[in-house]
Amino acid sequence: MVRARSVGDPAALPVSRVARLVGAVEYGVAMPTPTTATSASAPDAAPTATPPSALSPSRASDFKTCPLLYRLRAIDRIPEPTTPAQVKGTLVHSVLERLYDLEAYDRTTTAAVALLEPEWSRLKTDEHGLTDLFDDPAAETAWLSEARRLVEAYFDVEDPTRLAPADRERLVEVTVADDVPLRGFIDRVDVAPTGQVRVVDYKTGKAPGPAFQAQALFQLKFYALVLWRLNGVVPAMLRLLYLKDRQVIDYAPTEDELRGVERTVVALWRAITTAAAAGDFPPRKNPLCNWCAHQTRCPEFGGTPPPYPLPTAVPGA
Ligand code: SF4
């Protein structure tokens, strides 16, 4: 399954600014992997309707934005069109992940760019429907050039020859508050010789303006919460890398802050399970409706949602 990246994401709104909120820590030496739980199963992989099984940052964001959107994506699992912008994000992430398979001194811009076409061929082989993404070879060439510029931009914000990630594209899962399952993929985890942990997320869009920065950081605070609850150590730094405008946002979370995130996600999960039991997921019009693939199923746009696919609890039973 292609993991959607930054399309319709407020984090893609433009801003020219670097926010460095904490001091530098050297993350250049490989350390043992933190004790994190992993699983071979991918979230949201099943094509058929299913009750909510875990909360991820993107599904939490969906529910907060529009409960009906959450339902159509997480319960009905109605497929959405794959766009070139989404796949470009997947490709760039894939190249940056593979880059760290190389020896440190081989991680050059040239080597990274050379990974683009093989990774694109691999994605087309592995992921259903990608061979039909472009009708026009010239459009595919232009798209690959955009992906190349993003990969090149990465070298302006980090020096991969000086980094030794402890993990890449890691699936992490934990249960908090006894029965609230959390799950997500972390692009990269760095561990300094001091043991300090940094959680890194690559974005192929532009850095957000101040109004959307909290929303952009929510995803990383969610991951920080999961790692903290798994390992007992609060990550020292959360890093967002925005490749389109070569911006870096570093943020140092506190334990109190992660407790607040935990309260938020527990409340969200309780609201989702209550809504799922009742089959009650109302639409909520919002600025992202313009990018929503489900307008034809949405009452706000004159559509009708499909029948709710799960059994509902009988009030008073
Ligand atoms: S179009 Fe409808 S379902 Fe989609 S986000 Fe907007 S309100 Fe929600």
Question: What report would you give on this structure?
Answer:
With 317 residues, the chain is α/β, with parallel strands linked by helices. The protein has a single domain (25-39, 54-268), classed as Lambda Exonuclease, Chain A (Alpha-Beta Complex). It has helices spanning 57-65, 67-75, 84-99, 109-126, 137-157, 210-231, 255-278; strands spanning 19-20, 167-176, 180-191, 197-203, 237-242, 247-251. A six-stranded mixed sheet has the order 1-6-5-4-3-2, sandwiched between helices. Strand 2 and strand 3 (180-191) form a beta hairpin. Helix 1 (57-65) packs across helix 2 and helix 4 packs across helix 5. The chain is globular and about 60 Å long. It binds iron/sulfur cluster. Residues 66, 68-69, 283-286, 288-289, 292, 294-295, 298, 300-301 line the site of iron/sulfur cluster (SF4).
**What helical percentage do the residues reach?**
25-40%
CATH architecture: Alpha-Beta Complex
- Structural class call reads alpha/beta
Instruction: Describe the sheet with the most strands.
Output: 6 strands, mixed
Report the bound ligands by name, code or SMILES: iron/sulfur cluster
Radius of gyration: 20 Å
Strand order of the largest sheet: 1-6-5-4-3-2
Mind telling me the CATH class?
A: Alpha Beta
How many domains? The number is 1
Number of helices: 7
Which topology does CATH recognise? Lambda Exonuclease, Chain A
What coarse outline follows from CA principal-axis ratios?
globular
